Structure prediction request, 807 residues.
Amino acid sequence: MANPLCCIISFLTVLILFLTSSISAQTRGNIPVNKFLTASNNGSQWLSPSGDFAFGFNQFLNSSTNLYLLSIWYAKIPDTIIWYANDGNPVPQGSTVTITATEGLLLSDPKGAHIWNTSAGLGGARDVGFGVMNDTGNFILTSKSNSNPVWQSFDHPTDTLLPTQIMNLDGTVDCRLSDTNFTKGSFQMHLQRDGNVVFNIMVPILYTAYADPYFVTMTWKPPTQGNQVIYDELGSMYVVAANGSVLYNFIPKDKIVSVRDYYQRATMTSDGILTWYYHPRKFSKNDGVGWSKIYSEPGNICTVRCGYNNICSYDVVAQSLRCDCPPNYSLMDPDDKYGSCKPDFDLWEKDKQGPSGNVEYKLVPRENTEFSLEKCDGKFKHVNEENCKSSCLDDRYCAAVNWVSDNGGTCCKMNPLFLGGNQAAGSEGKTIWFKVGNGSSSTDQFVPSADRILEKKARMNAVVSILLGGSVFVNFILLLLGIFFIYYKKQLKIVSIAGDEYSSNVSCFSYKVLEDATNGFKEELGRGAFGVVYKGIIGASGSSILVAVKKLDRISNNADKEFETEVNVIGKTHHKNLVQLVGFCKENDQRMLVYEYMSNGSLADYLFGDQRPSWVARIKIAQGIAGGLTYLHQQCITQIIHCDIKPQNILIDDYHNARISDFGMAKLMALNQTHTNTAIRGTKGYVAPEWFRNKPVTTKVDVYSFGVLLLEIICCRKNVSIELFEVEGKILTDWAFDCYQSNTIENLVGNDLEALNNRLQLTRFVMISLWCIQEDPNLRPSMTLVTQMLEGHAEVPPPPCPTSFST
Prediction:
């Protein structure tokens, strides 16, 4: 029989152990080194002094499993997690987290294997004394020697910021994949080195940002560029400069809620929206009180949420979003309602005809919907709605179009795989027309009905009757009117271009008009191999536009018809990354081209000036140039090879987009066979090797030049530079391959921390450039593939040595 005294002692021992573990699990205040928590069902946690926040293992992910997330949460609202470790990956029951002197927080699995720690964030400090979960929601590890913080969760945010938290340069907030999956999602908030706060869409797997942020604070302009994002103790969030001045307020003053009465947080949601929430500090679980929204940025989540070929509808009041496929489109993945849509017909059948010889396409409208003009794949101005719609029907690369009446009519054409269709406040009265295959060879769109034919014949008969049966006097008057109309139309000197791609108007200016517009060709913008460019103003006061007038000095006046034909071809090119041709002059021996004026100069000025552009800005430039070249090579009705891609021929518009200029010069100069003593065109340092080898010239010469240009964009250095040659003994293209081969790519960008912090992306861009400058043209990718690689949609294999081509 058991000894009663032993039973009592055993019971007391178990009771003491239980109470000790419970006290340990609910520790408030300082937590010494070697203290640990275990992932288990007893709610193991360390609380802040007020009991508002808890640190430990949270089983909110799925209480029916044995998985736990090492995290920080509101102790009274355990399903609201505001920070998490181990990249959001849960761990099994029995895992532990320990405070250690050398690694800080150390997460281990049930077998003792180390999974994650904070050692990287400790820097050189290896003397952690204790940890503390404080009342702001910040978990801090302090130094044993001086009690100063050596690591804190506020410096390593996940998807949430809290009042009193500060984000420094290069700080990021990443959304989670979903409400119950805490691994990184597709959206990121980033305080860039240039002082801008941007929201980016992230490339899967590589987790680098796509070129164009969908939200920007525009706080980069020196000398007072952004330095920190502060979420202060009163509930305001703003961007401040180094001198403390506020540059941008995220939350309107009338939206701010008292921090004293409410818990507050700013969370980057899985939809890519930074949303501020509040929750009463005093509440009962039976009240059913939840989190309420204070504000969100950007306010319309249609800017990011719907996939390709999908139209977004957002109800601001109800804060509800819907993505709908256009007519005759369906979801690629039926289970992903926010995903991309595919056409249920062949968009590339433009040249195929039905039995009656009529193309089987029509335009289907969607009311109160529009595209952002900034997202247009082809945009042209001063055109009416009917011509705009007809241009889409005749363009095999047009999938949808919308027309805006502003400024004399602007036509916005979208290629397949379009983004930015929006049905929201402000879109009332606007219409997108989708080009769809209607499945039959005879449609109202293309075949007039019998009634229409009879009506047209009746009108014609009436006109003939008047002409034949009227008096001689009436006929004479009509004849004079016809002659006057023809003469007047000729005097207008407007060349109407109605091509297979779309209809447009390119003005034919007289020499006198352009001489007056440029004030006697006074202000020179630049000069090159083809002539001199002057700044001018065309139009009356109030409706005038700035233009750049290029006087060509090497085209013969014996090629009038060919010159006009080629100008018409160039005039039919419309792409957001091409400089638009406004008109031309063909008078006596004068040949001039009139382009829209680009206010920010050339890429050469942008890259090689005193201040280096940001890494994100340079990526945007590179992708824009690639998109423009892809259009010229593969999407124009007549293929255009530029032949002279270089920084001086890339202009920067008001929105810092790259715009290719002089893209028709190669075709125009070919009209005069005596314009140069050699067949080689282009500029030293950018010319493809096949020019020198008397080999066929294809679009691959532009790919080569783009590769050189891409390296210049990456490095902000000229390819042929005395400074570089004196230091490295090489030109940039050779040095770049040496750096790639020796795994010292960081040397290419020097102290550009923004580029260095995106090393994967930097390496990928260098690899793409090395593929482009292969001496063997067959090894160079097409510009379509280059664009896909730049955007992260195509793999970039290791490139060979560019000079391995045998002659």
Summary: The radius of gyration is 33 Å. Residues 18-156 form a domain with the Agglutinin, subunit A fold (CATH 2.90.10.10). The chain has a mean pLDDT of 78. The chain is about 25% helix and 30% strand.
